Structure prediction request, 507 residues.
Amino acid sequence: MSEDHAWLGIGQLASAFREGRFTPTEHLEHRLARIDSIDPQLCAFIRLDREGARRAAREAGARFAAGKPRGPLDGVPIGIKDVIDVAGLPTNCHSRLMPGGPATKDAAVVAALRAGGAVIVGKLATHEFAIGGPSFDLPYPPARNPWNFDHHPGGSSSGAGAAVAAGLVSGAVGTDTAGSVRNPAGACGVVGLKPTLGALSRAGVFPLAWSLDHVGVLTRSVADARLLHCAMGGHATALHRAIKGLRIGFVRHFHNRDMIAEPETAAALDRVASALEAAGAQVVPVELPPLDLFATINRVILQAEGFALHAANLRARPMDFAATTRAALLPGAFTTAEDYLTAQRRRSEVFAAVEAVFAAVDVLLCANSMEPSCRIDDPAEIARSYMLNARAPFSVTGHPALAMMAGLSAMGLPLSVQFAGRLRDEGTLLSVAAAWESAMGPLPRPPITR
Amino acid sequence: MDDDRFYEPALAQGLAVALEHCPDAVAAAFALVIRQRAILGVCTDPAIEPFVLDPAR
Prediction:
C-alpha cells in the first residue's frame, strides 16, 4: 500500500485529500513506513521530525474535514535540505563544524510552506555546506541514488533528489549555487527547478556564495515544481497548453565542442529537440560563450565568497571538513581581489551574451550532465565526472533553469536535459519542460535495488 | 607536488595547520587558482607561469 502512495504528486494529493479518499495523516503514515523501509540504505534523510509531521498532518486533516484547506500544499509531505532552517531542528549542513542547536525560526521559504499547510517531514542530506561531493568522512553518510544504490545521486541537494525519486516525499526544497538542484534532479531522474536569482527568499538559508545562491525545488513532475515554487513565494504563470510557435535555442556546442557528452546523452538531447519540434516549437541552433569560461567565473566567485565564510575554520581546524569540502574551498585562500573582481566583470559580459540570445529565442535547450552518475565509492571518477556539466552558465547569469529526465541509459540510470528561460519567465520555461514531459510520458520509477 | 611555491602564500593566508596536515590539498588549490587566472584573463606573474602551462599541476 505504501508503494501506491509513494508516487502521488502534489497535485494528486490535493485532489485525494479534498475528495476524502484518504487523510493527510493516513498518507503520511505510508510515507513514514516507506522511509523506514528504504532510507536506512538510501540515506536521504539525516533527521526526521515524525512528531512535528504528524501534528501538521492532523491539522491539515482537520482543515480538509472543515472544507477549508489552505491550498495545493496542504497536507503534502515535503523534505528540506539541511542548509535551510526549520524551527526546532538543527541545521547541521551535514558537517561536524556546525554547533548543532535547533534553529529558532523557520527559513522564509519554510515558513511559507507551513503557512500553506505543508507537512515538513525532516532534513535531507547534502554535500557538506552544499559544496564538495559525497563524503564518507562526515558524521552523516552520503545519500545514494535510488536507481542504483552504488551510484551517487548528484549534489549538493543529494538527499532531496534521492528522497523525491524514491517516493519518500512529494517534493523537496534544495539550494543551487553551481548546479546543486539540477545535478541531483538529473542524476535521480526527477524535475529540478532553479528559479531566477532572487526569486525565492534566502533568509534562513546557510549561505555558500551569496552572490550566486538560489533556493530551488525538486519534484516528480513539472506541474508540481510550479506548485511548490509558487507556494514558497515564487511566481510562474500557468502552464501553456501548447508550445506551438515558441522558439527554442539549442546550445549544441556545450555538449559537442566545449565538452563531449557520452553518446547516450547526446542522442537523448536530440530526441528532446525532435519532440519539441513535433509539438510545434521551432528549434534553432544558438551560440553562447564557452562552458569553460562560465564554469571558471562560477568557481572563482564561489571560492572567494565561500572562503570568506569559512576562513576561520579552514585556518584553525581544516581537518574537521570533509576532504572534498576542503579541496573546494581552499582555492579561495589564494584568490585575490583582482581575481574576484575580474570574475564579476566577466560575469557581466557573459550575462549580456545570454541576454542577447534570449532576444531571439524563448527558451534554451542544452545538456545538464554529460553522462549518467558514476559510482559513489570512486572519488577519482566523481571528481572527473562532476566537472562534466553545463549548469554553470545559468548559475552565473541567474536565468531560471530546469533539469529533468531525458531517458534511461543502457545501465538503467537517468539521462537528463536542461532548459533555461528568460529572467522571471519561469512560466514559459516550465511550459516547454511540460511539453517534453508529455512527450516522454510519466517518469519511470526507480527499481530501488542495490 | 615537488614545487613548493604555494608554501609562503599559504602561510601568509594563515593556512599553517592545513600545510601540516594536507599540503597536497593546499598545493592543488594554489595551482587551480593560477589556472583559473589564465582562463579569466587576469595577468599572471611570470614566476608562476609553469602552473599555467602545465594543467596537470
About this structure: The CA atoms of residues 40 and 51 of chain B lie 15 Å apart.
